[in-house]
Amino acid sequence: MSLSRWRFSTLSVSILLLCLLLIAGCGSSESKNTHAGVTPTPPPQPTPTVVSGPGQKTLDAMSQKLNTAKTIHGLFQLVSSSQAFNGTVKTELWKTAPAKSRSEVKQSTIQQLSAGSVAVNDGQQIWQYDPAKKIVYTGKISHAANTPDQQTKGIAGSGGGQSQSLLNVIQSIFDNSTGTLRSASVPVDGHTTLDIHVVPRASDESGTGSNFNYTGEVYVDNKTQLPVKVDLDINSLGKIAVTIPQLDINPSIDEKLYTFTAPAGTKTRPLEEASGNQNTGTLTLTQAQKQAGYHLLSIPGDQSDYTLQGVTALGTPGLQTYTLNYMKGNAAFTIAEGKPLANLPARGTQTSLRGTNGTTNTINGMTVLSWTEKSVGYRVTGKIPADQAMQIAQLLN
Predict the structure, then answer these.
(1) Where do the domains of the chain lie?
(2) What pLDDT, on a 0 to 100 scale, did the predictor assign at position 145?
(3) How much is the pLDDT for 380?
(4) How far is CA 232 from CA 130, 158, 198, 242, 275, in A?
């Protein structure tokens, strides 16, 4: 999954929860051999096919516009009739690169999501307001939480396990789909749109080898070239529709939006106590290992050139991703790993490593090496050469 320049960080607990439900469905399709403890031999990877045509060009141009935006303001409405949940959630979102964000839940028919929930990140501190509990969870952002792999892009949400937010899933689809123009004039909510049919873009254009399979339509406004609606049918989950009644790129945003004052009568608690919090703070490797419940790969201690700065965890228990923040000299890089990252679609150069296949990509100077191993997804990210990322991957044990 690609990264943009200094991506935005931290979205609301509400959107995080929705995405975790998505990931739970998307990652549930495993082969019988995997369940039996046998890792199947991956098939040979054919040479990627270059996709072109008006639908693909529109999809790529729209994705680039979102990825490079300095500010974003949008209204999002999600309607789900999936196995995971049924209901509607309306959210308003503001973002300013590289790290400031605010999201508010305007309406919700989902029991776990309270209308009035607010999440604010001023680049240094996070506030999460839960009106149902009348509690504000707050805490400082660790230095590790602002490393490149933990920032976000476009309309996406929390980084470090980029697939941890619903909008990140949508952004991933914009970035990694094969798009085919079905119609150049489809009316959607007062807009005249292009109807672009999307399916996962795999190395062989079939989606083979990925548990994240979907089919759907992306409706793009003819004038603004921005998304208006996304209809998806995701395997093992169901139908999801995201309507975007307003999406402004590079608007002027009042900095006061990135401040938060707790309402009268509310309690203030440490961010770590937030139920389903999106960032548990910096952990030691031992703490993260115990929390994960499965083995986390890391660079061996005898590799003295590498220094582990700490580990951050994103997500709710059982669906967390862990980001190991390393330094080698003056170069910083991260190793993100977790079951929600497994088999996600990725665009780039196919490569072989650790007995499986991976993908390398470079965007705006950032190298991203991703692969899946024993049902866990891994991603090495940093301003480092691709061959160094490969060396780091091979060191992990």
Answers:
(1) 13-273, 282-395
(2) 45
(3) 94
(4) 30, 21, 9, 9, 29
DSSP 8-state symbol, 152: B
Q: What CATH number has the domain spanning 282-395?
A: 3.40.1000.20
pLDDT by residue (tens digit) across 132-156?
Answer: 889 998 888 754 444 444 445 566 5
**Token pair recorded at residue 378:** 């891994």
Q: Which helix (H) or strand (E) holds 22?
A: helix 13-26
For the chain, what's the residue count? 397
pLDDT > 90 in the chain, percent: 34
State the CB neighbour count (10 A cutoff) for residue 47: 8
If one counts every other C-beta atom within 10 angstroms of the C-beta of residue 77, the result is: 16
CB 157 within 8 A of CB 1: no
Percent of the chain exceeding pLDDT 70 equals: 70
Give the model's pLDDT for residue 52.
Answer: 67
Q: Just give the CATH number of 13-273.
A: 2.50.20.10
Strands 135-140 and 267-270: parallel
Are 258 and 122 spatial neighbours (Cβ–Cβ below 8 Å)?
yes
Q: What is the pLDDT of residue 326?
A: 92
Tokens encoding 190: 């007062």
ω into residue 263 within 30 of 0, thus cis? Answer: no
Closest CA to 196 of 212, 215, 183, 207: 183
169-202 burial, b if ≥16 CB within 10 A, otherwise e?
Answer: bbbbbbbbbbbbbeeeebebeebebbbbbbbbbb
Q: Of the candidates 371, 168, 296, 20, which has an alpha carbon nearest to the alpha carbon of residue 381?
A: 371
Adjacent-strand bridge partners of 100: 96
What CA–CA distance (Å, rounded) separates 383 from 363?
10
Highest mean predicted confidence (pLDDT) among 108-117, 154-163, 387-396: 387-396
